[in-house]
Queue: 4 jobs
Job 1
Amino acid sequence: MAGTASSVREPGPTEIEMTEPEVSTRLESTDSVLPQARNSVADSSPARPQFDSGGADKRFRLINKIGGSVVTIAGIFLIVLTVTIGLFLLYKGSFTFTAFQHSVGEFLFSPDWEPQDSPDLTLRGSVGALIFILGSLMTCFLGLTIAMPFAVGAAVFITEIAPRAGERLFRPAVELFLGIPSVVYGWVGLTVLVPFIRDCFHAPLGGYSVLAAGIVLAVMIFPTITTVSADAITAVPYDYREAAYGLGSTR
């Protein structure tokens, strides 16, 4: 053990000392090796795909321009189509007053509807639309009278009484009826409501009445009035509510 310990010796201070030229030479070699190593690693790594932002922006602008042009053309087409239909109806309907020589007063105030005019005017009829005008007005008034209280009450319930349950359950259920076509309402009224009125009230016309039309119209306009009323109540500013409460108003 003594021989082994004596054979190991520590380096002297003269052996570990290095001159300045040797240190600078080693540092320069290290600095030259590191960039080469970085370049080799960069060359060996897979190249990242280049994203052409300018090309994407041009494509986006082109697609946006094409979409805007299509929407504009479609809107102009619908406007032209609506105006064309109106002009066609006006042109064809004017024959009643020009070719067949009926007056506007007869059309608005006569209850007789028998359009039996012949082209040579040998056969004369009447085109009084008073019954249809009054029937439409009575149906609208009856429908509004039935639907308005229920619709406004439903809107108050949605916005004031139970806003959470109303917004989550009641309002979506009401808005579902907005997507039902009016033909479906008419078919249900014709097959269900008309026989019910005929059997219940023994109507002389078999249930075909203003009452049936008014009830069907009330069911049709109930979702629209409810939604519009709820939006109008919600849009009232809170300051106005506080001012109303200060004047003695209740909820």
Job 2
Amino acid sequence: MTLLLLLGACGKSGQFPLQSWLPDAMEGPTPVSALIHAATMVTAGVYLIARSAPLFNLTPTGQTVVCAIGAFTLLLGCIAGCAKDDIKKVLAWSTVSQIGYMFLAVGLGGPAYARWASSTCCATVSSRPACSSAPVR
């Protein structure tokens, strides 16, 4: 059951193996649509995992899989973001990487939840200036 919850959260948050939709979705017509994806929508999957923490605490395998997916996705997002030259793509892959950090923190449990809360705030704040300073067409 926990792995099915994780699959749903991966789809919502753009985590491996379902990460390919997020950069395409953030290419929307306005920077505001990128901000909505980066700051609010994609964090819902992490919130699902955090709210389901009692279930994941009962299954160490589930926690390990959450950590592994988070770690792999954050590395994938970092590498892919460095390879892009379009600012929206860089922002999208940076968002994937930051959400990977959040998955890793939630998967570790315990004191890492504080890191998850701080990542959520930082990802929201750091995405805002990049989106609001972009020209509107």
Job 3
Amino acid sequence: MFDKGRVGLALGGGGARGFAHLGVIKVLEKNKIEFDIVAGTSMGAIIGAAYAAGVGVEELEKKTKEFFSSDLFADSPLMAISRASQKGEQRWLKRMKNILREKLFFARALFHPGAIPSAELLPLVSYFVPDVLIENLPRVFRVIATDLVSGERVVFSRGSLRQAVLASCAVPGAIEPIKRGKMLLSDGGIVSIVPVDAAREAGADFVIAVSVDMEIGHWQGVTSSLGVFMRAGDIAAENLKRQELKRANILIRPNVGNSHWTDFLRVSDFIIAGEEATTQALALIEKGLPQQNRLRNWLYNRARQLGFKD
């Protein structure tokens, strides 16, 4: 009687800003908007993996706040870099250089493919992501990484959930890539910052994309050759992202401003930003949902109007 459209949720990368995904999922759940498929890149992979594994959004939010007030985080390199990004008005590269030197990471970065060993990221991933196989999850889930050897996108649909997420979160230059067979795996955001295509390929007919990366904005002008080089890379990445986002049905863009990817001290603000952006997008989402989903939501809302409880 109704079309059997499958709904997918594509959660983008963005470091600490990715905790806005929790706010997005919270509002979708509250309004009984269900999705069959989740795809995640980088921090979107962490949040998506936990949710696809059956961890409730309320529990995830609680775990998030507990983690970032814990000794585990306080003693981590992520905390050191997060604090460095808040100090004074020095340029970010100078602040990063100083903190890496303080933590002996700068010397490591000169002779290793990442300033921070991937093992240092594992406690964060393990805290949120259960040690299970992707193919055994109760919800279809895809993790996106990049193979630095071939330059190709890698989509994980099987195997260790934690290892796939760890590879997806290996921020280039900051966290060393993960070696797997002949591949050298790094952040999925290099090739697919918001994994709309992976959600489509997994069978989604209707995709809600959540983008939490920084807008490139207007450049203030040439200050160095390194600045020109980095700007050129930002432009290329932005255009790649825009092309993929065109293939989403709905785009949710939480107002995370220009917060740095290491700004983990603001996760509560990012969660609220996700809630607000999704609330604003609800009418468009419900209008665009496949017929069977619209009927389910209409029945639910009608029942609430008549006084029935969940």
Job 4
Amino acid sequence: MGIDQADPARRQAGERTSTLPATVPVAVVGAGQSGLAVGYYLRQAGVECVLLDAGSEVGETWERRWDSLTLFTSAQFSGLPGLPFPGDGRHYPGKDEVVAYLRDYAERFDLPVLPDHRVLSVRRDGDGYLLSTTHGDCRAGQVVIATGAFGIPRLPEFAAVLSPDVPTLHTTEYRGPAQVAPGTVVVVGDGNSGRQIAAELSTTHDVVLSCSEAVSPPLPQTVVGRDMFWWMSVLGVMRLPVSMQAPDPVVGDRVPELVAAGGIRTVGRITAADGAELLVAGGERVKPSTVIWATGFRTDWSWLDPEMLDDDGQPRHTEGTGAVPGSYYLGLYRMRTRGSALIGFVGRDAEHVATALVATARGKDTTTTPPTTEGQAS
């Protein structure tokens, strides 16, 4: 099922499917990078589907991130199946470029996105699924849960006892230095997001970066003139499974040089709060004027049928294929490989899931064809 990508009169994403269907062969929950990627493969295979998204527009989650955010993958390794990321492949895209790319992707491939359709619950219904949304119910023969790895901001328990007089922002609320009051900013969390924000704030504020005990391996963005992800792809690293316990690498980190120059001070893990002060493991006290929580995200799967979850409340699946027939997952952190939640690598998992899904759909409808990788960016 092809589409003329050069057609100047291509429709706006979601225009083709403007109302929630009562029934559909496949419902995809989430129209972020994961949902769009699997939607691409389903459309290529001729499988009718709908992409249900809580946001008002494609790319809204990216749009809400801080203003200076840049990907740590270059454009060459930031594209979805069938459409390379535009511009110089060596360029590191900013978040606004990602938003524009995702919206163009949905439009270009005429993906049936329904915005403002938050899925409230997914329940088994005979041999299919009943999805309750903010605009009514939809029954699907198969369902792909593509809501991603980064759902609800996670805060440490001691955040609740920090004095309310100290302004705090999670990374999802941070936009830029102008938003932060003068004084000492404590960034709690030293992953890629925490380090990017700390580096940006160091030009306007006194910054204290709290580092965890786990050592995140540093990776340069380029090695011998090549993007680090080129090397990781060539060597097969991005296709290998990885332990959930292994720390994420920090890519293109500027913090060491800023620490050496006196622009950032690092402390150990913060373990508690006492009034307006934060307590560092080892006894040091830090009094912040503002705290930035770069403490990641947690997931809440309570809206899924209990049959779809394990004893810990996590989805029951094997490499994206659900334990409950007809259910699939995509975009989960390290679901199959290190790249499972990265924009430029989720396409491999999307193809894997779509192939399994189409095989099931073909058993019910012989008009479907296997998904194709034709035109996929390398």
